[in-house]
Amino acid sequence: MNVIEAIEARRSCRTFAEKQLSKETVKELLRLGTLAPSGSHMEPWGFVVIQDPEEIEKLGQEAKNYALYHLAEYPHLQQYEKSYANPKTDIFFGAPTLILAYGDTNSHFWAIDPSLALENITLAALEMGIGSCFVSNSEPFCATRELKDRYHVPGEYAFVTSLIMGYMERPAAHPAKRKEAKIFNEGI
Ligand SMILES: Cc1cc2nc3c(=O)[nH]c(=O)nc-3n(C[C@H](O)[C@H](O)[C@H](O)COP(=O)(O)O)c2cc1C
Fold first, then answer.
1. Residue-wise pLDDT tens for the chain (188 aa)?
2. Which fold has domain 13-36+44-167?
């Protein structure tokens, strides 16, 4: 699979085979992720990797409850109120591996650079038959001091987003559809 094929084949994956990613595979994906460019070459990314299904499930429940309680502070999440209130909702879709990405706020590019690393990871993972999906529903809780302390995330690191991963049961049925890119200037 070349890079263009990977970009064209990538879709968010929300159903996973039971097989777990090995630690070596996760480390290799993080290595490939962090080959991404970074502003002023500061490499301001840091990650938490969770591979215990019960821990991921518990974190998902905590994240839902926290989001529900603090919904007024997160207008973009208010559309998900019913889903958060539903005990059956699993915001991490039973994924066997969860990566939480944090950015060092000493860098101006603390949010951009970890996002670039995660996108590298999604594309490299695809080559290995591993599907992934960004999950930002977890944001309010994963940004808390409580959660950061639990996983030894230094205070100056702010939560960027999370990525669920697991071996795909089958390739995505359809390629992504997008609107034509907006080009604001003339001449192309
Ligand atoms: C920053 C970001 C946050 C996202 N958060 C969620 C999420 O919380 N839950 C979810 O199911 N999908 C989430 N997604 C996946 C999007 O829904 C998905 O990328 C979009 O629908 C386009 O579909 P595709 O990725 O299959 O092309 C997120 C994607 C991004 C980039």
1. 899 999 999 999 999 999 999 999 999 999 999 999 999 999 999 999 999 999 999 999 999 999 999 999 999 999 999 999 999 999 999 999 999 999 999 999 999 999 999 999 999 999 999 999 999 999 999 999 999 999 999 999 999 999 999 999 988 889 999 999 999 998 88
2. NADH Oxidase (3.40.109)
Determine the distance separating the centroid of ligand 1 and the alpha carbon of 187, expressed in angstroms: 32
Ligand 1 pocket check for 11: Cβ under 6 Å: yes
CA-closest candidate to residue 122, choices 18, 41, 22, 30: 30
Q: Ligand 1 pocket: which of 8, 11, 12 to mutate (most atoms <8 Å of CB)?
A: 12
Which residues does 69 contact at the CB level (< 8 Å), separation at least 6? none
Q: What is the pTM of this model?
A: 0.96
In whole angstroms, what separates CA 2 from the centre of its chain?
23
User: Could you tell me if the CB of 135 is within 6 A of ligand 1?
Assistant: yes
